Amino acid sequence: MGRCIHGVMPRSTSPRATASILSRNPVPVRIQKRERGVERVVVGGLATEYCVLNTAADALRNGFGVLLVEDAIRAIDDADGQRAIDSLRDQGAKMGDSGAILNG
Q1: What's the whole-model pTM score?
Q2: pLDDT at 18
Q3: pLDDT in tens, 55-95
Q4: How far, in Å, CA of 67 to CA of 69, rounded?
Q5: What is the CATH number of domain 39-102?
Q6: How far apart are CA 33 and CA 94, in angstroms?
Q7: Extents of the domains making up the chain
Q8: What would the DSSP string read from start to end of 37-69?
Q9: How far is the first Cα of the chain from the last one, in angstroms, to the nearest whole number?
């Protein structure tokens, strides 16, 4: 699970530990990000149909723009991954590659 939770958990964090850490966090992540002026979330990672899908969908539900980095996501199952991407596009996520993002 680790990096699934918006990049705030160490890689080795178990799901049980993650739930415990998050339940002790008094300020929701979305509020922390809004207070810092974050308007868009750039998402990459494994696996597209699980962590990427849930992170991006959560950001969209909370009013953030989402950019999926095409060459920085990978699905466990290609068909499920494509369904996840299609769903996120339908919800308003944009797609881009790392080169375009890094070059402006």
Answers
A1: 0.70
A2: 42
A3: 999 899 988 999 999 999 999 999 999 999 999 999 999 99
A4: 6
A5: 3.40.50.850
A6: 20
A7: 1-28, 39-102
A8: T--EEEEEEE-IIIIIHHHHHHHHHTT-EEEEE
A9: 31
